């Protein structure tokens, strides 16, 4: 039994090493630099061993996407937990979203297809819905005592996401604004949308 556990642990360790090596390659050379051969070289394994864990590069991108959504969801939950009022929770969550995008730039890029092609299968990942669900629930709470229709909540969520994801994408593709300007735009947008929700 102990050897079975050890084998499973080694397999999981190798799987993590493959993902870590993939991110390292991307951070150093961009998404175009990623290949199964480079991953194998990075972890000093043969390419066929990589294929035992991931059938192709798309499978690695999908797993990195899953990892990104799980990490983003954790950051949003942590930000929410620091506040009691829904308005403050929303502000903290969107600021955490912004921080995540730049702290984990490569994951964000593959999650949302910024400067890379995101994996089409990512849209089917249950984890891809987690960040939206967390924020959605706080928007609903902020709307109380008026219970918004699903369409109203959807409009508020996508207003937030469009502005914040748009600003992130602009800065990832062509960094034209100063950090001070970005923070001002970000906070003005968040505050304005929160105000519109509260009515």
Automatic annotation (TrEMBL):
Residues 35-54 bind DNA. GO terms for molecular function: DNA binding. It holds the Pfam family TetR_N. Residues 12-72 form the HTH tetR-type domain. It comes from the Bacteria. The keyword Disulfide bond does not apply. Keywords: DNA-binding, Transcription, Transcription regulation. This is TetR/AcrR family transcriptional regulator.
């Amino acid at each position: 039994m102990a050897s079975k556990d050890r084998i499973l642990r080694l397999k999981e360790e190798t799987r993590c090493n493959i993902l870590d090596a993939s991110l390292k390659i991307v951070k150093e050379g961009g998404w175009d630099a990623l290949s199964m051969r480079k991953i194998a070289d990075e972890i000093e394994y043969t390419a066929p061993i990589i294929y035992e864990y991931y059938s192709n590069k798309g499978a690695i991108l999908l797993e990195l996407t899953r990892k990104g959504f799980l990490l983003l969801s954790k950051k949003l939950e942590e930000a929410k937990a620091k506040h009691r009022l829904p308005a403050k929770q929303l502000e903290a969550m969107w600021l955490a979203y912004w921080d995540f995008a730049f702290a984990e730039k490569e994951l964000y890029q593959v999650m949302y297809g910024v400067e890379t092609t995101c994996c089409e299968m990512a849209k089917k990942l249950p984890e891809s819905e987690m960040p939206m669900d967390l924020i959605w629930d706080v928007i609903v709470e902020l709307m109380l005592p008026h219970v918004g229709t699903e369409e109203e909540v959807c409009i508020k969520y996508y207003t937030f996401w469009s502005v914040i994801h748009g600003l992130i994408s602009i800065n990832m593709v062509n960094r034209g604004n100063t950090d001070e300007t970005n923070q001002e735009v970000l906070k003005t947008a968040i505050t304005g949308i929160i105000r519109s929700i509260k009515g």
